[in-house]
Amino acid sequence: MTQTKPKKTSPKPRSKAASKKGPALLPPEAVREVFARFHAIEPEPKGELEHVNPFTLLVAVVLSAQATDAGVNKATRPLFATVTTPQQMVELGEDRLREIIKTIGLFRTKAKNVIALSQQLLRDHGGEVPADRDALEQLPGVGRKTANVVMNMAFGQPTMAVDTHVFRVANRLHLAIGKTPLAIEQGLEKVIPADYALHAHHWLILHGRYLCKARSPECWRCPLTDLCPFEPKTQPKPA
Question: Any catalytic annotation for residue 132?
């Protein structure tokens, strides 16, 4: 079936009053159009951290802090081939875990946290990963972003995990404007249409990782150029 090209919708002009208060947010119809285009390009976006169950997802996300997904996956493939439960992780031990993940930044602290969170899961949750943000944030090495990723990917909750890509893209597109991840998270939750909420943070991460890059966004091939207030738009480099 031939797919019709999405109708382009441009943001409404900023009023003088809005200018005095700061940048205006993208209007609701334009926000919906942003996510409609993301959906048309990739209806079912997936996270790039490899895992086999909620526990291995939790471990992978803890290890991914200040590290690339590719680097984490390289280290966890042999790990998750034999270790998939908190009990197995505790039995592996901190020393052996540290050796396995030594290619990942901050590996010593991360190994300590992974063993400690595994022990806490066994002690407080019967070895199961809780589907609750507050309970997740009580685990060593788990912050709000990590908890949101686990709740979204493991339990299908429409949480908004704000990493550096989501933070940048949300501010550039004026989907949400803020100086902290929490401000962006709360801003996005207010404006993202409910039917797009489950996959929203994945779309924003992928957009920021591969197109709306920090230093050199590739505006010339971006599907949101007409909606995006970011200036100046970049041009392709001469061949």
Answer: no
Q: Known catalytic residue: 134? A: no
| DSSP assignments along 167-195, one per residue | HHHHHHHTSS--SSHHHHHHHHHHHS-GG
Q: Say yes or no: do domains 22-45+160-221 and 54-155 share a fold.
A: no
Q: What is the pLDDT of residues 34-85, one digit of tens each?
A: 999 999 999 999 889 999 999 999 999 999 998 999 999 999 999 999 999 9
If you classify domain 54-155 with CATH, what class do you get?
mainly alpha
| Active-site option among 145, 213, 233, 237 | 145
Indicate the domain borders of the chain: 22-45+160-221, 54-155
Q: Contact, 59 vs 150, CB < 8 A?
A: no
pLDDT digits (tens, 9 = 90+) for 78-116: 999 999 999 999 999 999 999 999 999 999 999 999 999
Q: Is pLDDT of 22 > 90?
A: no
Instruction: Tell me how far apart the alpha carbons of residues 61 and 58 are, in angstroms, rounded to a whole number.
Output: 5
Q: Out of 12, 110, 163, 190, which one is annotated catalytic?
A: 163
For domain 22-45+160-221, the question of CATH label 1.10.1670.10 is answered with yes
Going from the C-alpha of 193 to that of each of 15, 36, 107, 134, 153, the distances in angstroms are 24, 10, 38, 25, 19
